[in-house]
Amino acid sequence: MRVLVAARAVNRLGAFTLPFLTVTLVEELGASVADAGWVLAGFGLATIPSRLVGGRLSDRLGARATITLGLLGTAAAQLGVAASRSLVQAVVAAVVLGLVFEVYEPASQSLVADVTPPDQRPAAYGMLAAAMAAAGMGAGLLAAMLASIDLRWLFVVDAVTCVACAAVVRALLPGRAAPEPDAAARADPDLGGSSPWRDTRLLAMLGIGTGFALTYLQITIALPLTLSARGLAPSTLGLLLTVSAATLTAGQPLLRRTALGGDHVVAMTVGYVVLAAGLLANGFATTPWMFVVATVVWSVGDLLLLGHAHSLVAALAPDGSRGRYLAVHGLSWGFAAVLAPVMGTQLLERTGPTTTWVAVAAGSCALALAQPWLRVRLRGAEVVAHA
Fold it and tell me: Membrane-crossing residues (predicted)?
C-alpha cells in the first residue's frame, strides 16, 4: 500500500495535462472550442476499452504488471501529444492516449481493496487520494510555471512522471498471482455469476457514477474555458488546481473526525450538495480570488465523496473479480468523458459560463437526491454502512 501511494504521488506530480488539453488544442493548434470538445470526446470514448482491459489484466496478471504496462503506454502517448504539429496529429495522439490512459486504474484500486479490511477501505482510499492531492499541490505550481512558457512541456513532464511511477512500481511492488473467482460468486445468481454486467447493484453504481463523472469533468473542461472567457490567464488554472489539492490534503484529518464516514450514502449525499454549491459559484466568479473561494467549496464536496464509491464496489465484488468490478464501475468516467466535453463546450458556446455552471450544479443536486434510491438498490446495511 505504501509503495502504491508513493508511486501514484510521483505520477501525480505530472498529472495536470488533461485540463490544459482543450486550451492547447484551441490556442496552439487553432481548433475551435466546439472542435476541441469533439477531440476530447474521442479521447473519452477510447478510455472505455482501456479500463476494461485494465480490469481483466489486473485479475489475470496482478497489479504490478498491469500498472507498469499502463503507465509506460500513457507516457508514450503523452509524448505523442507534445510532438503534434497539426490538429490531425493531435487527434490521433489523444485517441491513443485514451486507449492506454485507464489501464492502471482498476489495478491500483483493486490493490487497495485487497490489502485492507472493509471497514478501513474508505480511509485507505482517502489516504491514497490525500497523497495524490499533496503531490497535486506541486503539480499545480509546476503547471502554472510551464503553462506560462509552453503548454507542450506539460505533456513532456507528465510522460516523465509516468515512467518514474512505473519504475517505482516495478522495483518495489511485489508480483502476485490474481486469485480465482470463488465458488459462491459463480453459483449465486444475485451476484450475476462471473460477469459484473449481470450484477444489478453494480449497474446502479455505474449509473450514479456516470452522473457524477459527467458533472465533475466540467472542472477540467468548462473551467479552463470559463477562465479564458473571463479574461484570466491559463496559469490561473494551475493556481486553482493547487488550491484544490491543498484543500483535499488539509481536510483529511477533519474528515476522519466526523460522523459522516460511518455511512457511505449519507456522506455522498452531503458531498454532492457541497460540490453543487462550489460549482454554482464558478458561474458567478469574475476574479481569481472569487474562483479560489469557489474551488475551496467544491473541493470540500470532493473530499466528502472520496473513497465511498470505490469501497461500495469493492464490497460488492466476489473474490477474484475486484479488478473487473472496479473496471466496470470506472467506465462511468469513460462514458462521461465522451459526453462531458461536448456538453460543456456546447453549453459554453450557446449559453455562456453562468448558465453552464448553473446546469452543472443542478446535476450535482440531482445526484444528492438519488442517494436514497441507491441505498434501496444496494440492499444491505453491511454494504452501505461500514462503521
Answer: 87-104, 125-147, 153-173, 202-225, 231-253, 265-285, 291-313, 325-344
